[in-house]
Amino acid sequence: MAIFEYAPAPESRDVVDIKASYGLFIDGEFTDGSGAPFKTINPATEETLAEVATASSDDVDRAVQAARKAFGVWSALPGAERAKYLFRIARIIQERARELAVLESLDNGKPIRESRDVDLPLVAAHFFYYAGWADKLEYAGFGTKPLGVAGQVIPWNFPLLMLAWKIAPALACGNTVVLKPAETTPLTALLFADICRQADLPPGVVNIVTGAGETGAAVVGHPDVDKVAFTGSTEVGRIIARAVAGTDKKLTLELGGKAANIVFEDAAIDQA
Predict the structure, then answer these.
(1) CB 159 within 8 Å of CB 179
(2) Rounded to the nearest 10 degrees, how much is the dihedral formed by the CA atoms of 195, 199, 203, 207?
(3) 3-class SS at 230?
(4) Which of 3, 29, 70, 211 shows its CA 20 to 30 Å from the CA of 138?
(5) What is the pLDDT of residue 91?
(6) Closest CA to 186 of 220, 210, 215
(7) How far is 64 from 205, CA to CA, in rounded Å?
(8) What H or E segment, with its residue span, contains residue 93?
(9) Radius of gyration of the chain (CA)
(10) Exposed, middle or buried: residue 168 (CB in 10 Å: 0-12, 13-18, 19+)?
(11) Cβ neighbours of 148 (radius 10 Å)
(12) Distance (Å, rounded) from C-alpha 168 to C-alpha 173?
């Protein structure tokens, strides 16, 4: 009697190689963190997925200095050359989409249908989109001079998609990045770091530092960060606004309000 073995399902965990531990991604290499490591958990099973390094203020400083050094080279590239890297990243994301989607669902807890059919296509689309803008900035009306080093802090609800929203436009405009993902959902950001290496992105252009609030505060407060972009709670947004006030840093805050609207006195409330 023949015995047939089924191949792994397309969304099987077998398509993902989850390491036992992950370091920080600084200057194109994975490195140890100075802080006490933390565990990232599968919220569906409460299983520990991996141990992740915590970046101290010294680690953040190393990442910012790497981004500052890379900025000189990256910002000097013609937009069409930066676009080639973004196109390459987008194509690799498409090639590794199944792997990324499974890892996103394991670490974040969202249904595989959402990560596979919504998040991942949008992630690739954003890198394709901003690759197209990289050589057209002079027509956008905002100038062509990059800001410098962007310090970015993102939340847990759309881990990889938030990363794409933050990193893709920053790179297209000639900036370099130090990004801190949410401490509860760091794994797809760290896999994205590997994709940056696979795409031969110059070292230091993208740096990923993991940790909790203290790591995020070190990124926001670093004196050599030129632009801060934060998505998260209103409470933390207020703290960041106070920290950045009086400095020359540019600031973007996307806070806890959901689908906010301004209702004018002449609004047709009954009709609405």
Answers:
(1) no
(2) -30
(3) strand
(4) 70
(5) 98
(6) 210
(7) 10
(8) helix 79-95
(9) 20
(10) buried
(11) 18
(12) 9
The domains of the chain, with CATH numbers, are 20-40+47-254 (3.40.605.10)
| Token digits of residue 7 | 């191949």
Residue 152, both tokens: 């970015």
pTM over 0.85: yes
Nearest-angstrom CA–CA distance, 137 and 217: 31
How far is the first Cα of the chain from the last one, in angstroms, to the nearest whole number? 67
**Three-state DSSP class for residue 52:** strand
Handedness of CA 11, 19, 92, 142 (dihedral sign): positive
Is residue 186 a contact partner of residue 25, using CB atoms and an 8 Å limit? no
Mean pLDDT of 8-27: 89
Residues 6 or more apart whose CB falls under 8 angstroms from that of 96 comprise 191, 195
Average pLDDT over residues 200-229: 98
Which phi and psi (to 5°) does residue 149 adopt?
A: -95, 125
Tell me the pLDDT tens digit for each residue of 80-127.
999 999 999 999 999 999 999 999 999 999 999 999 999 999 999 999
What pLDDT digit, counting tens, does each position of 126-150 carry?
Answer: 999 999 999 999 998 888 899 999 9
What is residue 82's three-state secondary structure? Answer: helix
Output the CA torsion 214→217→219→222 (10° steps): -120
Q: What is the pLDDT of residues 226-247, one digit of tens each?
A: 999 999 999 999 999 999 999 9
Task: Write the CB contacts of 135 (distance below 8 Å, at least 6 apart in sequence).
Answer: 78, 79, 80, 83
Q: Give the position of tokens 């436009």.
A: 169
